[in-house]
Input
Amino acid sequence: TYASSNNSMYRVVNYANTSGSGNYLKDVRFIKNTLSGGYYSMYLYYAGSSSTDMENCLITIDSNTMVDAYYYGIYSYYYAKYKSISYNTVIMRSSTSTQYGIYTYYTTIDDGMIGNRVVTNASSTNYGMRLYYINSYAADGLALIANNEVICNGGSSTIYGLYCYYNTAKIYHNSISVSGTGNAYALYIGS
Output
């Protein structure tokens, strides 16, 4: 990929679906890959198509190494169902004002988000893991967010290690380090 690119069209893994298309990712596994560069390491947009189709979607992202993304490590937007997002290493590039190591919005995670190592290096705003509405749709119970290591280096504005908003989840044994001159929150829970 274009390791030095700051253009949002550069995506190492790209799935750009549309809402309600009826298309979805089923039994797709990303395991033990090395992803380098790009604006996004992984871009998954409407991976489950809709709240109805989401039950049929199933993705695994495990044991991957993602380095030098510009803005997002893992980006999952709307209606995706995951078996697991676990044991990944996400280390962001040191060349932008805002970064998200892992960003999820309206996702369901069956087995959990466990054992990831996430490092952000933005000069202004850092989100190690920004998680919105986990297990709000097509879920059999609580998501498990556990044993993750999150390090947010720098930041003159706002730094969030683990940012959770309207999640249905158990959050256990995570190690979070935030540093910088701005407002810093190791764990932020909103509703």
